[in-house]
Amino acid sequence: MDRDLDVCVAGGAEILGLHATVAPRRQQMQSPPSLEEYRFVPYYQEGVLAGDANLQEYNEACLSLKHDLGTSTKSHLCEGNICREDGKDGSKALCRCSAQINAQDMEKLAKDDKAKLLQMLLELWNSGRNSSLNQLTKDAESRMADLKQDKLLGGLAESHVLKVLLDVVLENTASPTKLKIIEYMTMSQASPALCEKILAAMATQPLLRVEYIVTGPGVQNLDQTELDSLGVAMVTWDTDSDRALPNQLADVDVVILNGVLSDCSDHNKLLVSLREATHDGGFLLALEPTTNLSIPHFIRKLNEKTPTNTADFEELSSDNPYRDVCYWQTLLNSLCGPIVAQMSDGILNTGFLCRSKPRPTTEQPQPRIIDVSSLDFSWVEDLKAAMGDPALSRVWLTVDSNPVSGIIGMVNCLRLEPGGDKIR
User: Are 85 and 231 within one domain?
Assistant: First the structure.
């Protein structure tokens, strides 16, 4: 490089008057890479979070304190005010039928940012010593919004269970690049919308485009600005009305219900209406409390009315609208098709994934199993013929001799090709 003559020579090339500028650094144009692990996961799992000792202790604390606020009102209520008992060691003891939990232990558990339920119960307990029952439930109303972040009430949705169930849906949809979801919400629904969690779980799929719609009478309780930031659409529709299903809610891959069934009086009408929104072979994913039902029932009663006397407060433990696993299994199997996956946290909630039955055909198509272990690729022509055969409903690819065969990536690519929806 001769700066005086403004000549640049490189080998046999000579450049006169070369001028160069520094190009700006390329910004991050792609999403951060995600590391995924593929393994066999049972479709039916019980006690997914039962091994979490901290969550179990937190659950026991909430049950104990709820017991004092609700079912033990007869011995702890005096002239409309709640009174506490002193423990033998001088500390405040919170009584329960089967155990005693020291108040200091509860306050330690309540320091967790996600211990919203226990924080509310402790606040009600402390304020209830000198407050009327009317004031007690008014205090509860101010904390209801915080319960959406509680680690016990939302433990199942925060765990890997939600991602596993959604992956089952994605693996069994016609298009691996498009997914249409609607979430139905009721007016007095205590459980939060799952759109943010579901969209975050699906963001790990780089080629997937998710169309998410929230509907139902409870959508007016949602923040429109937050929905817009997430790219979630809102459609006004109620299954109890005579209005027909809007076109925007048709041909849906999966319907999401988070605590909706427990908040609905007419289960049949709700499920039949939502089943019409899904296409043939579509899914319905329902999360419902099925264990320790006194906790969600207690919250529901505090949220829906204000008791004015002791008798009303004692009523918090009666007329429980929540049901156990067997009830929901029977209902969903009869109205929404077979339950293809069911997972429980073992503490409070259970997730049910149902799939609508496909339309009956004149003859049952047979699956095809192709071994793709051979490195001479002799199976390629068989695979091409199987993907183009309309008589085949499923084509299973197997590898039994090479743990790093690359079959997962190949299947992901094949599913984008014509006839790829039958590849497994």
Answer: no
